[in-house]
Write a structure and sequence with these properties.
The complex is a heterodimer of chains A (388) and B (344). Chain A has three domains: 7-84; 121-228, Butyryl-CoA Dehydrogenase, subunit A, domain 2, CATH 2.40.110; 241-382, Butyryl-CoA Dehydrogenase, subunit A, domain 3 (Up-down Bundle). Chain A contains twelve helices and eight strands. Chain A has helices at 7-23, 26-35, 41-50, 68-80, 86-101, 104-115, 229-241, 246-262, 275-303, 311-334, 352-363, 370-381; strands spanning 121-124, 140-144, 147-154, 165-171, 182-188, 194-200, 206-218, 222-223. In chain A, the strands form two sheets. A four-stranded mixed beta sheet of chain A has the order 1-4-5-8. Chain A has a four-stranded antiparallel beta sheet with strand order 2-3-7-6, with no helix packed on it. The longest helix of chain B is centred in the middle third of the chain and has 35 residues, at 190-224. A four-stranded mixed beta sheet of chain B has the order 1-3-4-6. A two-stranded antiparallel ribbon of chain B has the order 2-5. Helix content of chain B is 57%, strand content 10%. Chain B is an alpha+beta fold. Chain B has helices at residues 7-23, 26-31, 39-48, 66-78, 85-98, 100-111, 176-181, 190-224, 238-267, 269-296, 309-321, 326-338; strands spanning 117-119, 128-132, 140-145, 148-153, 170-173, 183-187, 228-229, 232-233. Classes of the chains: A alpha+beta (388), B alpha+beta (344). Chains A and B meet through helix 9, helix 10 and helix 12 of A and helix 8, strand 8, helix 9, helix 10 and helix 12 of B. The structure holds flavin-adenine dinucleotide (FAD). Flavin-adenine dinucleotide binds next to strand 1 and helix 12 of chain A.
Chain lengths: 388, 344
Amino acid sequence: MDFRLRESSEARRAEVRAFLEEHMSLALEERVYRTGVSHDAAFTQALVDRGWIAPSWPVEFGGQGLDPEEMVAVGEELRLADAPMYGIGTTNMVSAVILAVGTDAQKTEIVPKALAGEIVIVLGFSEPEAGSDLAAAVTRAERDGDEWVINGQKMFTTNAQIGDYAFLLARTNTEVAKHKGLTMFLVPLDQPGVEIQAVFTLSGERTNIVFYNDVRVSDAWRVGEVDGGWRTMTVALTNEHAAGFAAVIDRLLVAAESWARESTDDDGVSRMEDETVREALGRTVIDLEVSRLLQRRVAWMAEAGETVIAEGPMSKLFSSEALKDRAQDMVEVVGPDALRSYFDPSAPSHGVIEHMLRFSLGTTIYAGTSEIHRNMIAQRGLGLPRSG
Amino acid sequence: MEFRPSDEQLQLVSTFAALYGKESTPERVRAAEPLGFDQQLWSQLLDMGALSMAVDEEHGGWGATALDLALVAEQHGRALGSAPLIESQVACRLLARAGGPVATGLLEAVLAGERMVTLSPRPPKAGWALLVPAGAVATDMMIRHGDTLVVVPIGDDRVIPENVGSLPLADVPAGEPVLADADVILSGSAPEAIDLALDDWLVLTAGALAGMAERAVEIGVAYANEREAFGQKIGAFQGVGHPLADMATASAGATLLAREAAWAVAEEPGRSAQLAAMAFAFAAETARNATDVALHIHGGYGFMLEYDIQLYYRRSRAWTNVLMSPAKAVRRVADKRYGPRKAS
Ligand SMILES: Cc1cc2nc3c(=O)[nH]c(=O)nc-3n(C[C@H](O)[C@H](O)[C@H](O)COP(=O)(O)OP(=O)(O)OC[C@H]3O[C@@H](n4cnc5c(N)ncnc54)[C@H](O)[C@@H]3O)c2cc1C
């Protein structure tokens, strides 16, 4: 066994750090927070210039062919710095689906632009009545000659306001079982009938409701088979379900450690001397390591060609729940100063701990709630019967 | 990164798994209660080299790595081995590190199966070494006397308390005259030597507790797939399935962390003491919670002595708390990471 990353991975880490030194600033971090938009044109361009917009992709597709382990190092650094990667992440995820099941025309039209940072693709899955149970989506797509006509409403379409396309899950058949009547489309958002309404969330992240009113989309923008949308979704979601938040716990730890070293109690004693502080830090160190191991295991399995079953959900579930618990603890041990808001000039560690309290909540909800991940672990990992 | 043990390690694991499968069945574990010592299992472990592997060739052993030992400890924990494996390995490693005639002679006798040496992790209190792990079966006990590490023979005057985990613990007389006359293993550096031994102890116990947690989850899952209520398998209730999913996740994490901590002993020595305490704290809480969940989903049957899960529940508490509480281990993580508190 070897728990170290290879030298080549650590070399990538150092490169990303140097890149972030240059292109990530507190001002950018604050702008991302204040606007709620985790996407930035200049930062994206810098990534493109460096060849890092989709570093895991094969070189012939414009990537750098980094292996899963190198991507672990790259991902950890980007997350630790809270770099504006959300728009790039969804764009790459959809581009990967297009590469896997899209038409040649789609590949030629979409992939080069995605890799040039010229387009943003957003995820139009969730609906008012279909979140965890995505296959219950009712947004309709009806065929009209060479086109489809789309009517319905999507919830939580993050980045729709800057998006060029929505990767849309739509119902094309109401006569069959719910998983069998779905089709995926790439819907250009800049057209009549698309109405985007901002939704603001507890962490500051902006998301949207998107209404589709007789929106017409050419059959050329259909991704995958008609009524075969669920298979296409499965390709997309597997990556999402393997997410992990280890580096976000690291972000919390770095902020908490610097607070503990720099502040004193009422008697002028360093907070680092306080047992309750040390215990909260110790627990964070442990949860960070466990999260890292669970997340790295998924990458290692991918590299070793092993089939990932419950390991992805374990990484997502553990790290998001741990982040939430540790952020809560930390707010309590820091005391009243923890209430000072993110980016308020008076806040310790520029308010990262306060932000984590709010940010962590979303991590246990999006990309599949904790309950959905527990279902997957119970059924696929442990072989328990499906819940009724 | 390489998350798979080597072929040799997998071979080692399957050899020990087979031994425990034969010599540490739930029936045998029960039969060894309340003392918690199975002589036949112990002899087989010695024959297999379970102690010689813990020290290097120079000291008469075959120098397995700490990771090898942790992988064996996982099997020990899965099977609730009624034998002082980890206690003895820790003692052997301490003796090997100490060197000198007393330690060397003792180590030889231990490896030859003539003596059994244990370490009291705590200094004596009012003339007694209390709840000494393996004290009920060991022939000799190492203990701190000021800054000196001494070894005293354990006699018939030891007192063997019945205990929740059916562990072979003993309260051993260790008054001033006894310790003052005792053979000296180390003069002057006992606290450091005991602290290093404690790192070994924590990391190997972490492996054992992780194995115990994994097995408890398996037992719980098997029961959830078999027992029915309200016309369905109870595993279909999320109130049953979700806690098991959480425990399966934590057990996987505990196993990975224990292995990493053991790996770090050779590969990342600067961080290994911190990792040992991390692994122990996490494995201890995981074994505690996993055995609780697995017992609870058995309903009233889990509370019956006849079902195996209670054996796991009790030992998870005992194997942990005889050393240190999880909370104390978390504070040890901080001590190793940030240095001790100035106040202390
Ligand atoms: C900040 C943010 C950004 C998002 N971005 C996007 C995006 O870009 N695109 C997109 O499509 N979606 C996005 N989402 C939506 C997100 O994926 C959903 O919110 C999530 O999947 C849950 O769906 P829901 O909100 O409808 O909750 P529901 O499905 O209604 O769930 C409500 C509660 O019931 C529980 N529950 C549901 N089913 C089960 C079950 N089978 N067993 C046990 N418990 C169950 C859930 O765990 C939850 O606690 C985003 C959400 C947030 C908060």
